[in-house]
Amino acid sequence: MSTRRDFIRTSAGVGASAALGVFPKSLHGAPHVVIRRVTPTCVASANGLGAAARAIQELADGASTIEAVVRGVNLVEEDPTDTSVGFGGLPNADGVVQLDSSLMHGPTRGAGAVGAIEGIKRPSLVALDVMRYTDHHLLVGEGAQRFAVSMGHKVEDLMTEESRRRWVEWRAQRDESDFYLTPDQTGERIGRMRAPEDFGGDPRVDSHDGYRPQGTINCDIVDSNGDISSVTTTSGMAYKVPGRVGDSPIIGAGQYCDNDVGAAGSTGRGEAVIKTCGSHTVVEMMRSGMHPTDACLEALRRIVHVTVEPRLQDAQGRPNFGVNYYAVNKKGEFGGAALFAGARFAVSVAGNSRLEDSAYLFERSQ
Ligand code: GLY
What we know:
Layout (H helix, E strand, L loop, with lengths): L3 H10 L2 H4 L5 H4 L12 E5 L3 H12 L4 H14 L19 E8 L4 E9 L4 H11 L4 E3 H10 L10 H13 L43 E6 L5 E7 L20 E4 L3 E7 L1 H6 L2 H10 L4 H15 L16 E7 L4 E7 L3 E6 L2 E6 L1 E4 L4
Parallel strand pairs: 3-4, 10-13
Antiparallel strand pairs: 1-5, 1-11, 2-3, 2-6, 5-6, 7-8, 8-9, 9-10, 11-12
The site of glycine has 11 residues, from β8.
């Protein structure tokens, strides 16, 4: 009798299997890219200009692609002034910082992630340990923290004076219906969901101001051999329901990497990215031949298509939130796109690190 192990051995060992149609059509049709030399290129969210530059430097110093991007985002995780990531990230509704991160290493097809982990400043390092030292891809909550401690990570208070001040201010204004819906089928809220613009922020760009600011860092890299890695790390949506995890720790949502094709990641409203398998969609679009910028735009169109809830639409029926994608392909082509005009992304290539304007689907409202 043929066992599963035999099947795997046979499939992997006989090159002709693919030609005979053993693999699904989409993989069968993947372009066979022969890479000679690629200019090492790193893209990141706008708060990752320093991270992208560091990642490229790490590559030059001999780091692997996954080490390079993780060391890059560590800069932002450690930075108390970035209130969307790591130490100093804004907490959940209970005033507890819960962090999410995931990563993928193209050459080994490795993946690791942590969700809603508390007290660990650099969750990307724990995600890396999950990839390297466990048979799993995603650990969450208390178990994730216990694993982190077992790997030598320190548990610390991640609140800063500033993040506590902002949480206390939010708590004083909070509306009991924040983030909760009626249980009817339409999912309409009781009243209108209070949004950043009620408090002076713009909901359509990643913002560090306003009532419920959002931010995250994503970082994707390709090295001179065409090897690729990606990482995303965040404190998630500020003042979220305790236990909420966003897209960042979800492989295929907050980031995705396929060493045959490229890598992509996201920032912004994670719920919209999860629902559309966002970063995986971007990579699949690149696989079909799209430039990274066009692939990001196509994934954003899918978000628009599935955002049918009136509570999530503006007066013109467009999403009333922001999402940004960033992508790099195996040739070193890169791009970034956002739902609304005005977003930027970081790129580091050939010793030059800069912010570029993201492509977009919509002008802002007048
Ligand atoms: N994209 C980050 C989050 O929604 O948590």
